[in-house]
Amino acid sequence: MSIPRTIRTVFHAIEQAEGAGARVRRSIGTSKLRHFSPFLMLDHFTIGKGAGFPDHPHRGQETITYLLSGGVDHEDFAGNKGTIGPGDLQFMTAGKGIMHAEMPHENADGSPNVGMQLWVDLPKQLKMCEPRYRDLRAAEIPRASVDGGRVEVKVISGQSHGVDSVRDLAYTPVWLLDVTVRPGGRIAQPVPVGWNAFAYVLGGSAVFGSGDETRVVKEFHNVVFEQGGEFVEVSVPENADAEARFILVAGLPLDQKVVQYGPFVLTSQEEVYQAMMDYQTASNGFEKSRNWESEIGKRMT
């Protein structure tokens, strides 16, 4: 018999200001859920005209950006640049050092740019790897149809009901699924044993859990699951007014200390001090940051 995962906690992601004029709902990386290895931070962001994330550094983590609507440009000190649109993702490994900017499009209809950004810790032995990017376009993402078509799963990373994702996109093993459940639909989604898992509700409301242990969870809430168990069960009542949409994320926990100072995520205080010094002196991975300015960051001036 498969064992369902029970719910550890459910909490609301409160909207707050972040970056330059952006608004985010942060659910991992707050007092509610500080570190949930390997996850460091989860932001549901909204960035409009005149806002964004101008030039800033990173070391020691990976970021996964999933755009829900609009467009976001990126540019870094190594000459990498590009744009993601609705349904596209960008996986960035900061490794030993990156300095980049992430700036929104100005949409003709004035609509904001909305998406998710997840920070994933890197294993200690990979903290100083070379930085890299991988883009995944919406058209490349395979889909699974479940429960007679009442549930659709975009398999961004991982597996769902016989459908495998295109490829591994992060160094730290992570599953990322975008799930839509229509009224009357139900899904039992396996997750790797021993991995940490959570679900963030993007729209509507759904019933999470199995048997007598269920919770109705509304949009902008994060559902954190206990580590034990083999699958997560989610349903939407037949008489519901609308479908529910959520991202289900699972990752391999890392047995290491997390010491974070802003965009630097290492395993000791000394390593954080070193990262700050390397950035200030443009050395040990930050050489190209000296006198570098992104073109897209100049939109803020």
From TrEMBL:
Keywords: Iron, Metal-binding. Binds 1 Fe cation per subunit. Residues 22-120 form the Pirin N-terminal domain. Signal peptide: none annotated. InterPro entries: Pirin, Pirin_C_dom, Pirin_N_dom, RmlC-like_jellyroll, RmlC_Cupin_sf. SUPFAM superfamilies: RmlC-like cupins. It holds the Pfam family Pirin. Its cofactor is Fe cation. Residues 177-284 form the Pirin C-terminal domain. Fe cation binds at residues 56, 58, 100, 102. The keyword Transmembrane helix does not apply. GO terms for molecular function: metal ion binding. The keyword Metal-binding applies. It comes from the Eukaryota. Belongs to the pirin family. This is Pirin.
